[in-house]
Specification:
51% helix; TIM Barrel; alpha/beta; five-stranded parallel sheet; 12% strand; binds zinc ion; two-stranded parallel ribbon; 232 residues; 2 domains
């Protein structure tokens, strides 16, 4: 009798352990997901803030055109760079860094991170951070996974590397080159205090920047980097 009781209580104990483990897994995965940044908090000092982000570069010619437009408008932005491109176009990357823009990690060669193993994901992050550090001396704080595609493993490995995952709150789909006016009107229609705007290093984006920035300034927006937007 006594033995059966012990066995039963052991079984009960095991069940409890399993339930506890399941809860830990659930809570931790939702905790990671809850940590994804998409939009800044509304500011409490009356200023409307907006963060322009540019994915996929550096590209020859296009990225310098974007940097020129930003400099002429005295705007700082955030560039999510692809690791191998940092090596290939390190002169452009160096200019980007010297002009005071923030740099984030957009993987080493732009795969769907969700199709990779843990080791492969870690390698994509670390190799790009290494390239950025080599030419700027700074370690990226933010990761934007290519295609915005992530799973718990991606979030976990980002956290292990002290990186925050950032998506966006405003996507004018400039990558499809829908026309300069279309990109501008999509951003203006959807802009709000704290918007994170997803843009890419494309010609239409470089062309539309002066008008977009001028109009947003007229509407009371100030331009910030992601670190400024997400500062406490
Ligand atoms: Zn991309």
């Amino acid at each position: 009798m006594k033995q059966t009781g012990t066995r039963q209580s052991r079984k009960h104990y095991l069940k409890l352990l399993l339930v506890a483990a399941a809860i830990v897994v659930l809570v931790s995965s939702s905790a990671f997901a809850a940590g994804i940044l998409r939009q800044g908090k509304a500011s409490n000092d009356g200023a409307k803030r907006i963060a322009l982000t540019f994915d996929d570069g550096p590209y020859p010619e296009i990225t310098p055109a974007i940097l020129k437009a930003l400099e002429e408008a005295d705007v700082k932005a955030t560039f999510f760079v692809v690791g191998w491109r940092v090596y290939e176009y390190h002169d452009i990357f160096t200019t980007m860094n010297e002009k005071g823009h923030e740099v984030g990690n957009h993987s080493y060669d732009h795969p769907h991170l969700t199709s990779l193993t843990a080791e492969e994901i870690a390698s994509q992050l670390k190799k790009t951070n290494y390239a950025v550090q080599k030419y700027s001396g700074k370690k990226p704080v933010y990761l934007r996974p290519p295609y915005g595609s992530y799973n718990d493993l991606v979030l976990e490995i980002a956290a292990e590397n002290d990186m925050k995952v950032v998506l966006w709150s405003l996507n004018p789909e400039d990558w499809a080159s829908p026309g300069v006016d279309v990109i501008i009107s999509r951003v203006l229609e959807q802009a709000s205090d704290g918007s994170v705007v997803l843009l890419h290093d494309t010609w239409q984006t470089a062309q539309m920047l002066p008008e977009l920035i001028t109009t947003l300034k007229e509407r009371g927006y100030v331009f910030v980097t992601l670190s400024e937007l997400f500062a406490d």
